[in-house]
Specification:
The protein is about 0% helix and about 50% strand. It is an all-beta fold and about 250 residues long.
């Protein structure tokens, strides 16, 4: 298959900045979204919008069957160093990539779209999150024990994921929940905290989560609790739902 068809590239209209050690390594009004994997995009910047004086070339390269031979750089500021955190494909078979620089997302201290900080990965313009109030009766079972039950859930519909059922805390058996130190970030919902469920002598780790202060587009789920459909039994209007097969299963 032609490399151009395997890797999707689109210009973005957002101002995007990436910071390391208090310095803007990239600041661009013309970044590109590149779908290296089908699940979400990453940002590539025109080389003119990158602090190339802070890029130290490495001896190694990173070959890609679709992107070409990648030249690897360490990003180094006065206060921080990010080893092998920048990549260029100057001889890529994909012409649009030749003048661009990719920065490793997790190696940077912070990313901003316009003046809003973004976590985990860039927001996909084709990814949608809808949160709807519902009167459907939702019951959650773990090992045959009802741990939550509500007729006023919020249903969250997110592109590529199963429906998530968010329930008010008073409708959840919080006496069966044990907080964990797990924290995750979502570019569409924000930072989540997690609980394990304890039934008798058995603990089921990180089955439930909540967004205490979600991002504006997901405010309707603030403080509500959801359970992994993949790991618990969920009944909707009395009908047991099939456990979906996802990366979270």
């Amino acid at each position: 298959m032609d490399a151009q068809r395997e890797v999707r590239i689109e210009p973005s209209a957002k101002r995007v900045r990436a910071y390391l050690g208090g310095e803007a390594i990239a600041d661009s009004l013309r970044p590109f979204l590149v779908w290296e994997v089908p699940y979400y995009p990453t940002y590539y910047f025109p080389v003119e919008d990158v602090r190339t004086d802070l890029l130290v070339p490495e001896e190694e390269s990173k070959p890609s069957p679709t992107l070409g031979e990648g030249r690897v750089f360490t990003v180094k500021t006065e206060k921080a160093t990010a080893p092998k955190a920048a990549l260029r494909y100057p001889d890529s078979p994909i012409e649009a990539l030749r003048g661009l620089v990719r920065l490793e997302w997790d190696a940077m201290d912070g990313w901003f779209e316009e003046d809003e900080e973004v976590f985990t990965h860039p927001r996909d313009p084709y990814h949608r999150v809808d949160v709807l109030a519902s009167s459907r009766h939702v019951r959650v079972e773990v090992d045959g024990v009802t741990v939550a039950e509500s007729s006023s859930p919020r249903l969250l519909f997110e592109t590529g994921l199963p429906t998530r059922y968010y329930l008010p805390k008073p409708h959840v058996r919080t006496d069966l929940l044990e907080p964990t130190g797990t924290v995750t970030h979502c570019p569409y919902k924000g930072q989540a905290e997690y609980w394990s469920v304890r039934i008798g002598d058995r603990t089921y780790p990180d089955l439930a989560w909540s967004y205490r202060s979600p991002l504006p587009e997901s405010q309707k789920i603030a403080g509500l609790i959801a359970f992994y459909n993949e790991k618990v039994d969920i009944y909707v209007d009395g009908v047991k739902q099939e456990r979906p097969q996802t990366p979270f299963a």
